[in-house]
Write a structure and sequence with these properties.
This protein is mainly α. The chain has ten helices and no strands. The protein is globular and about 65 Å long.
Length: 262
């Protein structure tokens, strides 16, 4: 969808607004239409073939039309999403907070996979996620006498601090090295996490994501043949740290403060 939008914008720049863009001439292409199809043979995927995990098992991991192997990433992502949803339902119970947490984590999962594939964190997900976190803070309430989401003040400060902290690091790194250390999508995602979880969780999120990212990056360079010049997406680590902070942030912060004697 983003690729088609870029092509349409490029077409309008090159040929002017008088001529219809390629996207306007082409049939609609969004999350609803056209129907999902096999990337190998273009055969439409029926409703029963779209049942998470079950259809993959029944089809034995192959397209029903041409027999091409279905990548294992599909059931893997479905499994992660299902397991994460079950954990959130157990943690939050039947509540508005549970629904909000599901939306947050589903968005983080989508962003993580997109960033892994394309090194992009689309504004169409990060910006609505940030605003949703700010709006939800106006209505959030304690669940089982535990404040799971921040008050509006903490949410606003979290959004501003999350964005500006990585924005400042980005420009400082570029000033010193002349290179770009991260993308603008990382600023927006960190700001969105600050809006959802409050400024108090930002140190925990950035420490966890940076530590895990550094370990994985070093391992990829030493053992995976990854070139140092090739960038590694940071979004998946921010997303994973955000989920951990959502589920166990207060406990981790308390354990850290207790261990450090603060």
């Amino acid at each position: 969808m983003m690729q088609r939008e870029w092509q349409s914008q490029a077409h309008d720049i090159l040929h002017g607004d008088g001529e219809k863009s390629q996207q306007e001439k082409a049939p609609p292409y969004n999350l609803v239409t056209p129907r999902s199809c096999c990337p190998a043979c273009d055969a439409p995927i029926t409703a029963w073939q779209n049942i998470p995990l079950v259809s993959y098992a029944l089809l034995k991991g192959r397209c029903a039309s041409c027999g091409t192997a279905i990548p294992a990433r599909y059931p893997l992502i479905e499994l992660i999403c299902g397991a994460l949803s079950a954990i959130l339902a157990w943690r939050f119970g039947f509540s508005t907070e549970c629904l909000a947490a599901l939306v947050l984590c589903w968005s983080l999962l989508a962003l993580a996979v997109i960033d892994l594939d394309h090194q992009l964190l689309p504004d169409s997900i990060t910006l609505p996620l940030l605003w949703a976190g700010l709006v939800f803070s106006l209505f959030s309430a304690p669940v089982a006498d535990i404040d799971l989401f921040p008050d509006p003040r903490s949410s606003i400060i979290g959004a501003v601090a999350g964005y500006l902290s990585l924005w400042s690091i980005y420009h400082l790194f570029r000033l010193i090295t002349g290179k770009e250390g991260m993308g603008y999508g990382d600023f927006k995602l960190f700001g969105a996490l600050g809006a959802w979880l409050g400024w108090q969780m930002l140190p925990l999120i950035i420490l966890m994501s940076a530590a895990v990212g550094a370990v994985v990056g070093i391992a990829m360079i030493l053992f995976g043949g990854h070139q140092r010049q090739v960038p590694i997406p940071f979004g998946p680590y921010l997303a994973a740290a955000g989920v951990v902070a959502l589920l166990w942030g207060p406990q981790l912060m308390s354990a850290y403060l207790k261990a450090s004697g603060l």
